[in-house]
What we know:
The structure is a homodimer.
Chain A lengths: L9 H11 L7 E3 L4 H14 L2 E5 L10 H9 L3 E3 L1 H13 L13 E3 L3 E3 L8 E6 L7 E6 L3 H19 L4 E10 L3 H12 L6 E7 L2 E10 L2 H19 L3 E3 L5 H12 L3 E5 L5 H7 L8 E7 L2 H8 L3 H7 L4 H15 L3 E7 L14 E8 L2 E8 L4 H19 L16
Parallel strand pairs in A: 2-7, 12-13, 12-14
Antiparallel strand pairs in A: 3-4, 5-6, 6-7, 8-10, 8-11, 9-10, 14-15, 15-16
Amino acid sequence: MLTPERIDTNSLDLTRQLNDVGVEVVAKYVVGDHLERLEGVVRLALSRSQIVILSGGLGPTEDDLTREAVAAALGRKLIYHPEIAEALEQRFARLHRKMAEVNKRQAFVIEGAEILPNERGTAPGQWIEVSSFNAAGAVIMMLPGPPHELKAMFERQCLPRLCRMLPPQVIRVRELHVAGMGESDLDQLIAPVYKKYGNPATTILAGAGDIQIRFCARCATADEAEALLSEVSGPIEALLGDRIYSHNGDSIEQVVGKLLLAAGATLSVAESCTGGLLGERLTGVAGSSEYFLGGFITYSNALKTELLGVPPEMLAEHGAVSKPVAEAMAEGARRRSGSTFALAITGIAGPGGGTDTKPVGLTYIGLAGPQGTEVVERQFLGDRARIRQFASQVALDLLRRKLGAGGSGAGATGAGSA
Amino acid sequence: MLTPERIDTNSLDLTRQLNDVGVEVVAKYVVGDHLERLEGVVRLALSRSQIVILSGGLGPTEDDLTREAVAAALGRKLIYHPEIAEALEQRFARLHRKMAEVNKRQAFVIEGAEILPNERGTAPGQWIEVSSFNAAGAVIMMLPGPPHELKAMFERQCLPRLCRMLPPQVIRVRELHVAGMGESDLDQLIAPVYKKYGNPATTILAGAGDIQIRFCARCATADEAEALLSEVSGPIEALLGDRIYSHNGDSIEQVVGKLLLAAGATLSVAESCTGGLLGERLTGVAGSSEYFLGGFITYSNALKTELLGVPPEMLAEHGAVSKPVAEAMAEGARRRSGSTFALAITGIAGPGGGTDTKPVGLTYIGLAGPQGTEVVERQFLGDRARIRQFASQVALDLLRRKLGAGGSGAGATGAGSA
């Protein structure tokens, strides 16, 4: 269980995978490590849903109460399984550590539950089928909280089992990711299309320089659902053209990576205000070493000169946040790394450092390549994190358009410069 | 409203601030853009709580249904306010854009609600006091979804108003942040202390190389709460010593920044597998340009040689993921940037690239400084993102210990090398 203070990431992946097999997620509850409240939420969820998934609270510590809460909600006993304790002890021994006594709490299993082995951590999961709460019966899955443990257990053990129990109704989802457009402008453009349909349901979510349009169709067959998705998504893709960077859920850094690979090109970066964020996003993609050579975090002016060859007199005359400096940074990174393309970012991320002529959020983004260098100026709004995110997004989109616009598949046409 | 697929970040900050003024957050509900379900959740929340905060769904698009849902739950009308539409039009004009017609949806206000102006976005919030659902009456706050808009509106407009309505009961929270220890080892060490207390409530949350211990005390006065917190936290701080890096919620990058500032020292980084993450974390702290000079993202071997002077024969003999290369990277970054200290990370983040002798997760972290260079070897478990997060955390902790261990305040003693 997450406390009310903690970011939840597990439910995203779970929801997507449940949708794929026709299960709608109608609600999510987040409660703290409190036995009665946990028990209450389990009861409430069982009264409303046929599938209840609990994540977290299976660990060794005193505040891990999910086992006790579910047992109480079901009126069942907790039974100690010595073989689980033994396996845990062996796991610790392999890591040359002695197991702490508290870990034995993880060996308690609810009466009638099946044990789900945990390949990536210590807390085993539990699968319980119950019939007492509603006519249709229900399944309770108790999964560990750490995302990498939960994901492996759900995908390999729970999902196959769940699929065998479900009727053949499908939910199919299609996502379009759009860069370089505001939310209300986008909605005004596409609402006349999607408003005609109740199914698929259309959701628009806006991030920093990034909008996700999600269509969700519910049909008896996959073919039917896919046809319905195309009916809505087709005209919208035509309206948005190359502002769509992805049709399949790929992030913009994945799209840029694929375009670089296809072009046999390499990339380097020069970052000032983003301090490594652009490199971090690019290298978050597995296999990025195929096209990403590296980069320069030139936070100080001295390093802009030393590492990238930005002339000190240029910095003095125009300031570090300026068009010529962005250009010189991109060209310096390209020259010094030997990459095909180089992206450079220099801006004022705030909260301090803004002036009347150069307010917080002012950012210059340079792209150097074989055909020369271009620089775009942007005025971003928001706090430090949002301005940095915006800047890295616009940089990635600038390169995407240079490399030929497309997401994968339909709709996208031609290259364009921002 | 968030769809069930979307990460929620707003509730963390809200919960913390509500706790600070004595309001306990007992539950969080996440539902999609669906009018009846939204209405149902508003009714449910009103039946259980005196304060109901809704975030999101106030935007211009068709799927923004919070206004309609709350109006339906309360049985009140929505009233069009032309002055809101006019202010929106002026806002767009200032940005040299024409307002899309759909934005006028944002000018609808629930009968009897007070309008909360939005300083950072287009959607105004609403504040509604109701008495019909329970004896004590209730307050409904409708806030915009984007975090920077919500935060400003809540802190500046809602919180002060709320404080005037609340009885003088306080919740005080203290957090300890610990690096370099596993969750179960930590719990075994400190459980004998905190288990004796129901108040404060103790929560332990583990991240990649990072554990947060949170004590939450509820008392009639702030003094009483603080005394109770010290009673529990004191002995635990003594047990954990310099493994505690922060006593006040500061992140490890903030702690490192303060230690560097205090020492009058500067820092540079050399990153291979983390690709910019370490620099990104360090520069996420406002004012980091005071001590962070910049860095080198040397993803390719050629750039390790070219930018950091790592000898090609060393790379050939030991491989890029090795102790000597981490050492050479750290020393190269320090030399080329002229910084007091330099941190270097080279490792195998996976999922590919592992071998029998060098498995995925093997990472070397180097720290070069005026007294020489040290390198630590670590074997991290988890996926690519987790291994990278772990590596950056251990690097920051290595420097923290070199600079004199301490978080701010109590307990921490002496420097130590990991």
